[in-house]
Fold each of these.
Amino acid sequence: MHTVTKNWFAPDKTTLPDFIIAGAMKCGTTSLHTMLNQHPGIFIPDKELHFFDMDDISQHPDFNIFKNERWLNHNLSSNVERYWSWYSTNFSPAKTEQLLGEDSTTYFASNFAVQRIAMQNKPIKMIIMLRQPTARLYSHYWHMVKAGKAMFNFEDTLRFAPHNLLDRSNYLTQLRTLFSYLPREQVKVILFESFVENKAETLKDVCEFIGVEAAKLPSDTINIHANPARVPQFLQLHLLKCRMFREAGNQQSLRHFCNEFNIERLNISHGQRFFERCYKVVNPMVVKKPPKINADSKVFLDKYFQKSLQGIDELLEQDVMSLWFK
């Protein structure tokens, strides 16, 4: 288990969220975020902030670049006040009476994030969404494709670089870590399957958990579907491009935070910009569902997760294994 060796308490007057939608990734978190943000008593920044784990290499390898014989990355142990100030700024548009929320789907898998959140002088509530692990993993792969971070097809990714995909679905280890730092009453676990089947009831439960009236949500809130699936028109061409220009993906991720913290600017050449514009014309992302997972790949992964998740029913005190592995 990672250990945060330095005190990481928020400085005085720092704005902290009342709740965090902390993952797991590709389990309906974006839809839940969008629905809750319709509530007049809630404010959630539009983008994932990744504040509590932006220096966790295991969760954000793409936030780090080795350039000119040195690493460009975030170091939250130095210049802490500036990082906290930036974090607070993301909540500044909120009204005084609103509850504050955050949505960062890597926190659930990051020991850094869980420990740091638990250290704060505010009992931040955590919302964790879980999904059938193979389905989550497969959706995660296509998210990587969309983001330009997949270099192989699905089966070859499992062969050559499986760890990130597998680890994000190993919920049992993550739940044990979470419950070792936070009391149970501070954590709300939601099954994606139950959320899809009965959004109204799930929203009511979540509102009760964080302390707002569900009745104040607009009547059409449950019809919101955020984050529609997008896939490249020509997958093999897209994977080839990602292999050839892998560093561009890292630059894009790290540049998201560079200007805020005086990390060396990562300029994109005119040639690279021109190539990106042309490529989007030749091989655009189109709105459609990814192909179904190969049947044998599903069986292969289901068998793995049936072994790695043994004990999750007892930990959550509900029967999820029979729901996920029929």
Amino acid sequence: MDKKLIHSIEISTIIIGNRQRKKLGNIEEFADSIKHHGQIYPIILTEDNKLVAGERRLRACLHLKLTHIDAIYRKYAELDSFIIEAIENIDRKALEWEEEVKITEELHKMLILKYGDRWSGRKTAEKIKMSLGGVSTNLQLAKALDEAPDIFEKCRTKEQALKALKKYKLDEAMAELALRNSKKKYGLKAKQYLLNGNSLDLIKQIPDASINVLLTDPPYGINLSDTMFHSTRDMPSENKDHYEDSTEYFKDLIEALIPDLNRILKPDSAVCIFCAYEHSKWLADQFRTIGYAMDVLPGIWVKHNAGRCNVPEKYFNRGYEYFVYGTRGMFTLAKLGTNNVIQCTNINTMDRIHPSEKPLELMEELLSRFCLPGHTTLDPFAGSCSSVVASIKRGCIPISFELDPKFYNNGLQRIAKALEMKDEGKMQVIQ
């Protein structure tokens, strides 16, 4: 390096300006290195003393309360100054992942601006000595940071951010597909069967005495919100699907729904609700208050593939779940003499579109016991919409609610597909 090009510059005259990098790492450690070994590399300035590259060195000298710093002057245009700074930042100190992806994006845009359309991602990768895949990933993350920064709120590493991005892109793709389908014949029909919103609000829209059968799978009220997850098993815990599942929330929700359920269910009707064992008696009692003769014994769904217990070191795996059921008025079961124990294989975790999804086969079996073709069914907590598809196959008219936009979009797609299969004769429908 030609020593004559290096100047000792008064630090107070240097203009730092608005820099790309916001987090500069351990400045004290860097300052200590300069204190013992001296400033090995000079900073780079424009002719009017604007900083081009070397902010960490400058900050370290300020920390040491030095008055002067070694610098080299360069006649770079502003564009070139940015490119030099970006390359230095990416090449030297490890950046926070957010900074790295944003600097990569800005650098790529600046290079395209300077060299025109002939510039490519591959050339950017060569410029900063990064793989083409790495640049592509950074550009995707940077775009997502602009579009939906909230999905990365709890991502501390780039690996976590990539998993969050994968989930985001999947959800967006499903939403876009649902939007396109919703404009078609089956999508419009699906929107009649599945409404998006809070069940406490939507139930007000249902006419009096219009529902024959309530079949639903509400929150269990057993504080499962920290353990439930979507189908991507390797997703970081901070990106798993969460929902309210406290006992207080569950009981408040059911108590708030009961008056409207009493209003919209027909005098001769049936109810069947999945629940946790510890709430089964309480839940049955709520329906007894509005005239239902609830069976004193809950029904049991036995899974052939037992679900993992949350505390496996203390308890056995969960091989069954409960549901309470009953009828009022002159309602009679559509299928007599069936067992109160139903055996049905659970859905593999990786194949679920909802964390608490019930198998379609299970919902079909339950509806076959209560419903005749033409009956109107209600599910205020549609989730995966298994109950809705089962109602379609049974020849019933389903009404359902789903609060979460993602599950609503998934549900629309599933219902539209079922309706299309029905019309094409690919689904056996009870007439």
Amino acid sequence: MNIVDLDIAGASKAILAKSISSAELTTQTLARIASINPHLKAYEQVLSEDARAAAKAADAEIASGTHRGPLHGIPIAIKAIYDVKGVKTTSGSKVRRDYVAKNDSTVVRKLKEAGAVILGIVTTYEFAFGFDSSPTRNAWNIDHIPSGSSGGTAAAVAASLCMAGVGTDTGGSVRAPAAANGVAGIKPSFGRVSKAGITSLSWSLDHPGPIAKTVEDLATLLRIMSGADPKDPDTKDVPVPDYPNAMRGDVRGMRIGLPTNYFFDDIQAPVGDAVTNAVKKLETMGAIIVPITVPGVDGIVDSWMPIAVAEAAAFHQHTLRTKTALYGDEVRLLLEVGELTLATTYINAQRVRLAWQSQLKETMRDINVIVTPTLPNTAMKVGETISKIGSREESVFAVSARFCAPFNMSGLPGVSIPCGFAPNGLPIGLQIVGKAFEEEVVLKLANAFESSTDYHLRRPPMPGLTK
């Protein structure tokens, strides 16, 4: 195996054992980026010199006996809406084409303190307000989109252009691209990870989260990223578990809620088959499958939209007037819709949200998690604007948010892991949703499934890759 194809756990052990160096790992990853990124277009900015310097410093520290932990010397990528000190952070928009961050976002600061090597800035849809992340392509087939505004992160992880990366999830944009690119991604509970220094899309729906090759790597990243932050009043002062250890063990007796409504309606047959087989697998491992009806979910995405557009419009109010021409047509239209959204519409949507949270809490009272498909379909083709599943037609936005956005409205933690591949060769994702601040339960079930399958070990064949 090429060392760039290692996961964080494997690379960290190798660096600590001095069988490889961070400098070697970083150099080879940069070479892979140079080979593949012209085709995949996942990076908008590669910080080669900074990355090499950070890797050299990591090797020197480790050689002197100072080891900061499992991220020390590990090359990772940052979504283009996170502030990175001294680096241009465009948020995927011409509006911020000249913006250079004066300070690191809280998440980036924590990653640097843990010894991570920042390779570069990966693409996002303009201000993270969309699901196709153009010009980035899907790692498994460049004729398809990476799905989700964190598509740059997920595609880079899948193609081994980094060991892991960070994204944000407002309507599914960590979980959806993780599913579409065959990697793992987690949206933690709202308030678990600080949003400080991250360009806001919708402050009450935004969830920063990691994307990685394995569940163990997600656990490692989430432990480092989590915690209360005075710079973000939405963060909660609750204990942060040692996720990598807390997720160990079998899942016998774990009660899994399997929805009988909404989440299996109008989905592609291979998606339904893969998720059904995954549930059967979990049952053979001792989990208890509990059929459930999820009340209130059918209209929840309709209430998500006015919240998202109104909060986005408030954030962009000044620049939408002073830099109107610099916005892309689609985002400008969404922001204008947000400005026209009535206060009563926004408030009523928040009331629906509160009712949904209460209903969901009651639904989950006697179960540990809910399991659903992450997406109703595999990744759509580049340029395709309408998803057709049977007689149902939806926009890219609508089909991508359908199973993910409800859990942004609830604020509950949700992970996506690969659970199969469709006949077209594209990955299929399994979504596992837990109770508030019980990420370790979600990770435990995800890790158990992952450990019993090989989907996470498969790597996409990439154009431009020389072996």
Amino acid sequence: MQTPFGEVPERHIGRLSMAEIHENLTLSRVTRRSILKAGVIGAGAIAAAPVLWQRPGFAAVPPAGRHLVYGADPQRSMTVSWSTAEPVQNAVVDVGLDTNYGTTLAADTRAVVGTPTVYHHVPIAGLQHGTTYHYRVRHNGGASVDETFRTAPSAIAPFTFTAFGDQGVSDGAAETTQTVAAANPAFHFHVGDLCYAFRTGTGNPLKPAPPIDVLVPILTDQSVWDSWLEIVSPQAARAPWMTTVGNHEMEYGYGELGYDAYLSRFVLPGNGASASTYSFRYANAGFIALDGNDVSYELSANRGYTGGDQDAWLKETLTAMRADPTLDFIVVGYHNCSYCTNVVHASDAGPRERWGALFDQFSVDVVINGHNHCYERTHPIRGGKLTRKAPSGSTISPAVEGTTYITAGGGGQAAYQLALYPASYVTVAGGIRVPELAPWSATRYLNLSLIAVDVAPPDSGGVATMTIRALRAGGAEIERITLRR
């Protein structure tokens, strides 16, 4: 059915299975190139799946876990998602310029094996740029309160975004979410390890990983996803949460990549090299979400699954972004750390080798990683080496001085409170940890934290700025730097 907002999707669900791996254990190697290269879940599993059972009548089932995600064009598209504790009838979103709404769109409903909860998604197209919309979600027996979202502006205007990874379900996770809300961002960029649904695994994170391709089928607890969505929903229902996959999104048994449980809960923009990658633009900044599991030397489970497609897409996307004279900054996010001195995971040579030269070639301004549960910032780096020292308060010119790498893994999971600086190690091919010095490390904060980034358009002199503020959970400032274009 066509509406002023686009075509109403049909309702369908995906068949998934259940199990998991621990963070330092890897899935047994299987053939992965036949799947998830075209932005679909389970290589057609959803399209072939049966329609969700519709029970007679209805009971009171409140909506939960509301969250927003931009479509490929944040000026004109938004996906509204939510969950219900059991199947419901007639799940829809009402949307419009005021509380009269005026347009009702049917939901695409998905189920996940291992939980009775079902997840509803409504992609909304044909929106107007820079506009506030009212929406509510409802179904037979339940409805949410009115909420609003705002599309991206067409003109270059100041905005703020926040970012962290490694959140989990805890008081700390709630505190970092509240800190995000206090920053009032246009959107939040989550760089992986969202909820830790398979935290039941045991093991010492300081102990080296076992041999590559060890299979350890540890069951997940899919209800943890719902607990996490309830923590983030008060903020994610108002501003999009743009997420990337971490190693904890690889849940063994949920599709060949382990991503099916994650992709049943998040509808991503769908314009990347695979279902887990995408890009979007907001004002004068371009954002690229990469899948670090494809290139990691530390964790082998999904290494190489795109067959080089992600690298080619990254180069094409960077080329297009740098060719746009109205786009000043490029931000890249992925989970695995290219540069970090934290004792638990330190650095991974995989993304360094595969993507570092591209970041140099196209003058990427900032790379945001997670994985290590801490905050760390590098001096500007080019060719794998620092170009100059940039202490807190510095102004950096990425076009001539290189890329700043930030570990923002303090999102709420237990902090890793030991750094090896000035020495460190990097995991190379074969999972081998090689000692190295770390003169590139500028600042380290070993507790819960996040970053808030204030982006300004060019001033009268044609200079645009991006001010990166590192914040403790609760909002106290750790440091700040400014990137200048």
